[in-house]
Amino acid sequence: MGKKVWIRNKIRTKTSERNLGPFKVLSHKKNLGIVELDLGYYKKWVGIRDITKVKL
Fold first, then answer.
1. Burial code of 19-36, b = ≥16 C-beta within 10 A, e = fewer?
2. Is the pTM of this model over 0.90?
3. Fewer beta carbons within 10 Å, N or C terminal of the chain?
């Protein structure tokens, strides 16, 4: 996919609270409205509403 996204501060990442991105998009489930992000050493599913910015 190759997209980078920034996420809202509400979501806690193990890296740090302020580390909002850019995170790499691994996959997405459009019908559920979630995307899978690569947060370094683990993956996390995040809702589309929590994404603030997308860079192609």
1. ebbebbbeebeeeeebbb
2. no
3. C
